């Protein structure tokens, strides 16, 4: 089953799939709150096997896959920092000022954990004083620590206007790896040379979504889970809740996770 319904419906639909022992690919988030995510984690753990894949499709994006492969080769030494940038043209009508952390930054939380092979342990969220704090698309800047002593930075700017733009740079002991978005053409006109930005996420991550779906189908056939698990969905939600607390209170906030059940170790 593929779940791509509104966020608040995900938990019940995924629980129904687990109860029926049916594989499911669920769009992020797994559930709106940490407590609800843990309900799903517990249900899958009780079943004793992974049936759920969460739609953190960046794990299948060729640029991120190559970045991780470069890191794992050992040629660049140990990873030290991971810088992320996530910009949209404008916020959708249903978006509010908290969703930059709770709905958008979760992609950065998940891909940082996956690239670095570490849990996120602390977060502080900043918002520029010059920004309109109640604006849905106002930018936020996040600084996170990992269980391996690395740092992660992320700028989330949902109202950047100029185009959809996702970037990343992994800083290691002996070098760096930067993402490159797929570019097929460049234009010469009106005394300028340049490339265009997409209006939304679809052109940038079309390959990632396709590869994710293919991997999910193969995983069902082989009964070998791939991609983000319900545990990963819970971990991203925990970072988001801590980030929202940090933003509200203006201070560093710890990210605390429960002990992972055996099927996720």
How would you explain this protein's 3D organization?
This protein is an alpha/beta fold. It is 35% helix and 22% strand. The strands form three sheets. The protein has a seven-stranded mixed beta sheet. It has a three-stranded parallel beta sheet with strand order 1-2-3. A two-stranded antiparallel sheet has the order 10-11. β6 (140-146) and β7 form a beta hairpin. α2 (34-47) packs antiparallel against α7 (230-249). The mean pLDDT is 95.
Give the topology, please.
Elements lengths: L1 E2 L6 H10 L4 E3 L7 H14 L4 E3 L7 H11 L6 E9 L11 H6 L1 H11 L3 E7 L13 E7 L4 E7 L7 E8 L3 E3 L8 E3 L2 E3 L6 H22 L7 H20 L3 E2 L11
Parallel strand pairs: 1-2, 2-3, 4-7
Antiparallel strand pairs: 4-8, 5-6, 5-12, 6-7, 8-9, 10-11
Helix pairs in contact: 1-2, 2-7, 3-5, 5-7
Sum this structure up briefly.
The chain has 265 residues and is of the alpha/beta class.
Quick one: overall form? globular
Q: Would you count the extended β strands for me?
A: 12
Predict the CATH topology: Dihydrodipicolinate Reductase, domain 2
Largest sheet: 7 strands, mixed
Arithmetic mean pLDDT: 95
- The number of helical runs is 7
* Count of structural domains: 1
Segments where pLDDT lies below 50 for 5+ residues? none
Give the radius of gyration. 19 Å
Order of helices and strands: EHEHEHEHHEEEEEEEHHE
Looking at this structure, what is the CATH superfamily? Dihydrodipicolinate Reductase, domain 2
Class of secondary structure makeup: alpha/beta
Q: What is the percent of helical residues? A: 25-40%
CATH architecture annotation? 2-Layer Sandwich
CATH class category name:
Alpha Beta
| Alpha-carbon distance between the two ends | 25 Å
Strand content: 15-25%
Report strand order across the widest sheet. 9-8-4-7-6-5-12
